[in-house]
Structures
1.
Amino acid sequence: MNHHRALALFIGGAGDKKPYYLAGPYRNIAYAQAPFDRRIEQAGLAAACRSLYLGYHEVRGEPAIGRLVTAAIPDKATPIYIVGHSIGAWSGAHLSQRLSEWGYRVEMLVTLDPVGSGLLVRLGSNIPYRRPAPRSRLWINVRAEPGRPNASDLVARLGRKWQVAGEPDIDQALDTNHANAGALFCKPLRDGRSAADCMFESVVGQLRA
């Protein structure tokens, strides 16, 4: 087995890990992380693939990234997987660029209904203003386009969704609500595989290479 442990970073959006404008914490990204961690465990790879749950506010600035992210990366050959939801997807995309520039190996970026282009969101959240320029070997973007919108979809619209058409390697929509990070990550896309399937298969391939 490859000695380069894989690292999976799950980055929550507004109101996920800490309250946001008095709402939350909802821990939406945990519903994406938990089934992924179970699959890794069932495959007998728990010792080789570490998974971290972070808030969007925890991956801004070198000190925080150094303390919470790069300290957990064994070496620069370690494959890194980033899954971000909502504002966490905006922050995760910025993180992919920064880690790549520092010489780390970002294998995959998964953005789940990314939000962050609205001025109000930027003023109220600790996120970079500039549009991200993601860098990873594969970028999967999954958009929420629900037949029956709920309050979370309104909030996402107000925060202004990040329009990424033409940029990701895979860019697909699912009939689910913005808050449902678990469904956005785990529901099958057009080819029958979910973003979670693609990521799991990649991790297994890397660790068993």
Note: The domain at 6-207 is CATH 3.40.50 (Rossmann fold).
2.
Amino acid sequence: MTAALSAPAPARPAPRQVRWLLRLHRPALATWAVLVAGLAGALLWLGGPLTDAAATAWHDYDATCARDLPCRYDQAAILRYKDVYQYTTTALLLIPFLAAAWAGAALTGREVETGTARLGWTQGVSPLRWLAARLTVPALLITAGAAVLGMLHQTAWAAGHGRIDTAKPWDDVPTFYTGGPLIAGLALAGLLIGALVGLLTGRSLVALCVSALSTAVLWIGVHTALPHLWPVATSVSGRRGFPSYSGIKVAEGIVTPGGAHRPVSTCTVDLSPECRALNDRRGTAGFYIDYHPYSHRWPLQLAATGALLALAVLLALAALLLLHRRTTTGGTGTGHEGAAV
């Protein structure tokens, strides 16, 4: 698309753009509504009847099997809780990838590839307003839905915490990422990554694959940075002990005679003669572990979500600037000289 756009028709009102966008992506909207409703119902079931039944089964197990009495407990209730928890958690983890793939393939990539975007720009919708409408409506729907599901997942997990012996700990990676607003931040960032990739490539299939892969890279980056978004707690022990901790371990090492902490990767406890000899040569006075306890759960969630929201703003600005540059300078592939912005 290299030809200049003709004089635009009168601007289409924003509500009309929104209605048109919802009609255009009605199948995706219906799929998202069914997914949110289905997962919400499953999580309410998980946090209510399934948790109560599994907790009762574990109580019966501890009261009979652990005392050499005939085992009388509802094993099916325990397995049912475990299966539903696993399925709902996995489904929530896939939301950022689905949002990215859809945004790259359908929201921007396909319309640039087929020329539908350029046609819309000649019907009274400027390129920047066109993109703003495509980013705003899906962003609101996906973020709101994912946030509700994240809070329901957290509520379901909390209902079983301390009552079900096999319940996942708070620092279990899938449990942590799906139990709160963090999953909504990842979904929003995934959506905007997909929209940007769709504009960059202008090919729906390529954008689908690259968007999903980019979201995986984003997740790795978030997971790597997460432990450093909040000050850590430290547990220290002497040479004859081992630092006790519970939560997300960030770093470990030795304590020098002067009290300094030096990170090391080997022999962080005197379990063998070789380690004792090495720690003697190091001048080790004790050991330490930096970690995040349970009390850091919400600060980490909120800090990571805030970082993702900031990234989402940058991605949206990058998409708007890219489209502005291409439609005002006649850039490669999607440029349009003289387009209204």
Note: Confidence is low (pLDDT under 50) at residues 1-13, 331-341.
3.
Amino acid sequence: MASAQLLAGKVAGITGGLTGIGRAIALEYIRQGAKVGVNHFGGPGDEPHLKSFLEEVSTLISSKDVSSHVVTVAGDISKPETGQQLVEKIVSSFPEQRLDIFVSNAGVCQFSEFLDLSPALLEHTVGTNLNGAFYAVQAAGRQMALNQTPSGGSIIGISSISALVGGGQQTHYTPTKAGVKSLMQSCAVALGKYGIRCNSLLPGTIRTQLNDVDLADDAKRIYTEGRTPLGRLGQTRDLAGPAVFLASDELSSFVTGAELLVDGGLFVNLQ
């Protein structure tokens, strides 16, 4: 007997949703009955990811008419208008004409030695990871405040274990992830009067396109696996379940301002 869909009738938006963690969450939301609007950067490099993503959606819903379940919007999330355009597209594309769930996921991570770090890399990282999260979450919050639904809505920021620990080659990255966590805490206070819940997910070491080069070093990969109590690196699907939990009114209606580590126990073993 098939289990009930946890997000049936819900409408969600996800930034950076064609690859990695964002893609895994988007597909699981669709599997759980939600309609989803996905932001991606755009350009030729995205075309294979977009094609395969839509093919997966088609398989999930057993239909080639994916437009009834998903819309995609290209745009640089570091620009203030991109988040707004995503929200507007979602609201106008689905008959519900609202936004129930929003996941701020888009991010970049390029390792660099602190003393060699260029202003351009710093600005790109902060612009995408933190400014982009702020603009997109603000656009989502504005829409959710208009929803006039009992649940208000759920906003989830994808932070990182890096918000809690330092990284010698991540001096530009870790502050942005700490910022996302802090943004969710402050938004929980600011948006609570609208019934909007705001929480963050803190992934540990997850195999994505962002760290493929770094984890190609067998010694580093084996070391990280050894420090993780569950004995393996995370997979993108490991974030999908926690993201459903925080999105679900049934499962997390009184959870806001919280942070959830999804790291296989790595953080507690770093002490």
Note: Residues 202 and 229 are 16 Å apart (CA to CA).
